[in-house]
Amino acid sequence: MYSCRVCNGPVREVIDLGRQPSANRFVLPDEVEGELFLRLAVGMCDDCTMVQLLEDMPQEVRYHDTYRYHASGSASHRKHFEQVARRFLEGELAKDDPFIVEIGCNDGVMLETIAQAGVRHLGVDPAKDVAALAAAKGVRVRTTFFDEPAAVEIRAEHGPADVIFGANTICHVSDQEALLRGVDALLSDDGIYAFEEPYLDTVVGRMAFDQVYDEHIYYFTARSVRAMAERFGFELVDVEELALHGGEVRYVLARPGRRQPTRAVAEMLARESALGLAEPARFERWAADVARVRTDLVELLGDIRAQGKTVVGYGSPAKTSTVTNYCGIGTELLPFVVDSTPAKQGRLVPGSHIPVRSPEAFTEAQPDYAVLFAWNHTEEIMAKEKEFRDRGGRWILYVPEVRVL
Ligand code: TMP
Ligand code: ZN
Questions:
Q1: Model confidence over 12-44: pLDDT tens digits?
Q2: How many angstroms separate the CA atoms of 283 and 286, rounded?
Q3: How far is the CA of 365 from the centre of ligand 1 (A)?
């Protein structure tokens, strides 16, 4: 039995996605030998209901100097984070000399707007190359992990933070207690700690099982976040559903008693119970549905090959690693994938070792089919690749089930 990272309660396994590499560690052909793997399995805590990975990679493996995920990679993300920044500027930061800290600022996609507004800010990110991209946009960055000592130093240097923000970062942190101690050390008395992360109902209810990978240690719900907040001296005061990454939730924590929790919190808690998001039977059904996607996808790719037709992959987010490794899809079924991120091109999808090429290779190859791994950008990509459809190309989607468009 595994024990809960948050409350030490017993964690019950709900799904096993097999032996998997670090999903953003795109390797060069000569680096294949040194790849590390884990058993990618998820469980739920019997006591606090936190859904979490059973095993994890060492942090140094997941985040390193050449972290290949760039948050600014899509127009919808850029737009979203500009709106996030504007809301802070008009809300929490509309005061005398405000200060905002972002944990995991990546390439500065959110803080860029804050910096342009001339507001005091600091991005904290351990990955040197993405932090350098942020700095090039005029964003102040500190290249380190966010923990209590770092938070104490930041407060000594800049004073308390009115807002501490994280997006697609907080669920990556194994030791949430240490993180919240850092937040406690840095946050002003009336400040908020807001984070936007993949939602368990998206992963389970909408079948986005490819959100499960080594970096996503937690799959939050309002219920599990509330329990965690209370355990470590905070209160969940607001929640909001977001369209990003197929469906995320923004959680807002404050010091206890400082803010009236919104109705949205109670509503989300009620809906989560109605959905059975803490019921073992719900996860059993999910695991069976996920296994069916694997069977159907492998069968479809096999049929395409048998018919002498061609298929490639479109987009190589970390999700591509989960799906190809879970399904056992290699170059014999999918000769290459294309991705617009230059840092991924010329490398291989971790574990499955499918080459990543630039989107031009897609246009040149004129495949009959394309598996849309970046399915959370369906609209943007289908608009961009209209020609593919026009000349008879067909998109393959596998969330929530395998289908050909
Ligand atoms: P993300 O949803 O995790 O940001 O990952 C999307 C991936 O898809 C990222 O590696 C960039 C890639 N991508 C393309 O290759 N073409 C596109 O048009 C878009 C929007 C994304
Ligand atoms: Zn627990």
A1: 999 999 999 999 999 999 999 989 999 999 999
A2: 5
A3: 19
